[in-house]
Design goal:
The protein has about 500 residues and is α/β, with parallel strands linked by helices. About 35% of the residues lie in helices and about 15% in strands. The protein has helices at about 20, 50-55, 70-80, 110, 135-140, 170-175, 185-200, 220-235, 250-260, 310-320, 335-355, 380-385, 395-415, 425-430, 445-455, 475-480, 485-490, and strands at about 5, 15, 45-50, 60, 90-95, 120-125, 130, 150-155, 160-170, 200-205, 240-245, 270-280, 325-330, 370, 390-395, 435. Helix 2 (about 50-55) crosses helix 7 (about 185-200), helix 10 crosses helix 11 and helix 15 (about 445-455) runs antiparallel to helix 16 (about 475-480).
Length: about 500
């Protein structure tokens, strides 16, 4: 602890200590009195989507909608401002927030009449399900004869006709016919997102990029880093630090980019890279998260596995061979088990192969990650994560929306201590835990809100009562998850996450 801090004009900590001795240092400085307030390191969000987030700031926000009537009214109002044929983009809706749950999930017929001249694309709050209207379905040529793609679902009515709801990889069917944003538009989205981040005290973001399952090509995903982000860094137009990830299948291209640039970051140190991400399963709200046992709400459903396991393991091995950090989305307990087993197995095979080949390059420490880790089978799972040094990038703010839904979809036991949002159990098992928001898909970019959610665990409407109080963690543990531990999870502990000299 200290009561004085010297910071350079470039934001680097030069010295910390007792205020009375500050004047004896070799530095010249002007003084800012914080008036007894605390000084924290810049906060880190370990899971966001900056290009999507910047676009979302000007899109239709349905996060507060509580009824079908309000849903339709907001969509109709947004459509009035569009020219014929222009896409109506938006999202944030959550059917669990509807006052009358008997209305069920939204359907294209809800909005077809008020959007007859415009294709519509409205993401659910988790990003794993979207509502499109009949105009969009027609543009994408999706009808009763269209098969479900691997790892996705086209929801259908009793007659087999699409209802307008698309899940996971099925989203790409409509994304494929949407206009592709220009690099300049993406730059503007990132700058808007960065300004929003700074307004919430976030000085570093781990950007998970635009998922390929939503329809963006692998080449464009890679160019989001190599062209869009790189150009912003070159022009000193990144106002927040960004750790930018690309899809797992772009591992070889990313390795080539790292070799071309001669390192893991831009010289400004505002942009770093070296991570590849993919999806193992879907989400709880869309009932596509993968579980060992069926959903309590649907005895025939255990969720979906987005990729073939053998193919995914080969891709993970390629990434590890290239000395990249592997990040896998895993929400259901079976997804967490299988994804972590794949990382462990791939790492062991690559270590053996590397030993046979001889050392090829100086390798980084292995800090692979699972994103979300919402539900786990038990202590054995957590011990596997800890022993393999797999980071759990979790989302405390999601708990506030999921608490009641978990009981409905999973039952009391799987929603309880040691099984769901098990932050304290993770830390007690020596798992490295960091916090992300998944903005703009699920929650706001709000690390302080994440701290409160993890320490209090009180969802709206619960009258101050914690949801599974046994899994509450301390403020110190929660603060570490958005500072030191979070920067360590991106190999940037010397740049961010602490107030130590040089950071």
């Amino acid at each position: 602890r200290f009561d004085a801090l010297l910071v350079s004009l470039h934001g680097r900590v030069l010295w910390s200590g007792d205020h009375a001795t500050a004047s004896k240092t070799r530095f010249r400085y002007s003084e800012v009195d914080l008036g007894g307030r605390h000084c924290l390191p810049g906060l880190v969000d370990t899971h966001a989507h900056m290009i999507m987030g910047g676009a979302f700031l000007s899109a239709l926000d349905l996060s507060g909608v509580a009824s079908k009537a309000e849903f339709v009214r907001r969509v109709a109002a947004a459509a009035e401002d569009l020219s014929e044929g222009e896409w109506l983009m938006g999202g944030g809706w959550d059917e669990n927030k509807f006052a009358d749950r008997s209305q069920g999930l939204p359907r294209a017929e809800w909005v077809d009449e008020v959007t007859a001249s415009n294709p519509v694309f409205l993401s659910r709050s988790d990003g794993h399900m979207v509502l499109v209207n009949d105009v969009a379905l027609a543009l994408a040529q999706v009808d009763a004869s269209t098969p479900d793609p691997e790892g996705g679902v086209i929801e259908r009515d009793e007659g087999g006709r699409p209802t307008g709801l698309l899940k996971d990889t099925a989203i790409a069917l409509v994304r494929a016919v949407q206009p592709v944003p220009t690099f300049e538009q993406k730059e503007d989205h990132i700058k808007r997102a960065a300004a929003y981040a700074l307004s919430n005290g976030v000085t570093m973001v781990h950007d998970m990029g635009i998922p390929t399952f939503t329809g963006q090509s692998l080449d464009l995903c890679m160019k989001d880093l190599s062209v869009v982000y790189w150009n912003l860094a070159q022009r000193s137009e990144l106002s927040t630090r960004v750790y930018a990830c690309v899809p797992l299948d772009a591992a070889e291209e990313l390795r080539a980019f790292i070799d071309e640039k001669g390192g893991w970051s831009h010289q400004s140190e505002m942009l770093s890279f070296g991570c590849v991400k993919d999806f193992y399963d879907g989400s709880l709200g869309s009932e596509t998260a993968l579980f060992h046992d069926p959903y309590a709400s649907d005895a025939a459903n255990t969720g979906i596995r987005i990729h073939d396991r053998d193919r995914l393991e080969r891709s993970v091995r390629t990434a590890i061979r290239s000395d990249l950090q592997v990040i896998l989305h895993a929400i259901g307990d079976k997804a967490v088990d299988e994804a972590s087993e794949i990382i462990v197995r791939a790492a062991e095979k690559e270590a053996a192969a590397a030993a046979e080949r001889g050392r090829e390059r100086e390798r980084r420490p292995q800090r692979h990650r699972l994103e979300h880790v919402q539900h786990v089978k038990g202590k054995e799972t957590l011990e596997r994560l800890a022993s393999a040094n797999i980071v759990a990038s979790v989302n405390p703010l999601h708990l506030l929306d999921d608490a009641d839904m978990m009981l409905e979809k999973l039952g009391e036991m799987r929603s309880g201590a040691g099984r769901s949002y098990a932050f304290k159990s993770m830390l007690e098992s020596n798992v490295s835990v960091v916090f992300g928001s998944d903005w703009p898909l699920v929650a706001p970019l709000d690390p302080l809100g994440s701290i409160m959610a993890a320490t209090d665990r009180v969802p709206p409407g619960h009258k101050g009562k914690a949801f599974v109080s046994e899994e509450r963690i301390t403020r110190e543990q929660a603060l570490a998850a958005v500072t030191g531990a979070a920067s360590h999870a991106s190999f940037t502990e010397n740049l961010a996450g602490s107030l130590s000299e040089g950071a």
